[in-house]
Amino acid sequence: MTLLQTFQDYESFCATTAIYPREVEVEYLALGLASEAGELLDAMLGRQPSKDAMKAALISEAGDCCWYVARLCEPAGLSFAEVADAVAAEQPSYLPIPSVAATRLAASAGLIAGKVKKQIRDGVMWTGEQREDHRTHLRTLLTRAIFDVHVLAESLSRQYADPSISLAGLCERNTAKLRGRVERGTLSGSGELR
Known about the structure:
all-alpha NTP pyrophosphatase fold
């Protein structure tokens, strides 16, 4: 299976687990991404009982960020699979330590939330070219967020000497986690262990 196929499968799978009101889709997803980026930073603070627990939490939260970014791509008119495939083929010229990579992702999530906030504030007045400028900027921010997840995965891979941690690996692990929740009937709800 190619990386593109992996990302296409992930993008399709994410759509099957999307449980939220469609009339507030973009707002819900932007808030969700910001929340998951916050949880990622919280896990980075080392509040886990062991190094293995911290690694698991970081991978899980990074995977959740992937889900929100993948879902946000659709209303923005962007293919998560195509962008992720292009990004995953790049070897970042600089790999920051994981905490810096997580902070970069949180910054991207915050910028996305800010763009959506402005649309909520001003959106009814946005038409034509102004609306397309907004969508173009949102697509740029989403592309940056996908790249930030890629850099975070590569940085975690290096820190933990675990080559299975990659952008594709995060998508595959997130799929497995969500499939388990679907099987248990716990897709809705709160908490990591459901």
